[in-house]
Amino acid sequence: MNLIKLTVLTACFCLILGCSSDSNNEPDIQIEELTHVAHEVLQFEFIPDTGNNTRLLRYQIKFSNPNNVAVNGYYRVTLNTDGLIATTFTNVNGQCGNIAANSDCITTFEAEDSLELANVNSITLVGVEYVIVSE
């Protein structure tokens, strides 16, 4: 009787361990590469003297997420201020830090400063970029 049990157990053991998994039956998981978030400058205005002893900088930028998933990220705006190039960053908790799938987000900036702070003749927009951190 023990010999029969041993034979049956050995056969079952060989069948269980001997079956190989067929990886062709497993579904292929496609990882979709994210498309860059596009941007459109809706408004950019620099007024060197508003008439109130101040200067004004304002801009409005629309970011468009063409992906089928929401994205988290931040944007960079590069400005040329009288020949000095500087880039400002936001963070993922700031405006447009999360953009829903196939959606847009508009960020707005407006700053009015006293002319006594510094003499600034021109500010021009050099570039805008949205950096995806995660989906």
TrEMBL record:
Looking at the record's lineage, which domain of life comes first?
A: Bacteria
Q: Specify the signal sequence span.
A: 1-24
**Keywords, in A-Z order:** Signal
Its recorded name reads Lipoprotein
What is the native source organism of this protein?
Answer: Flavobacterium orientale
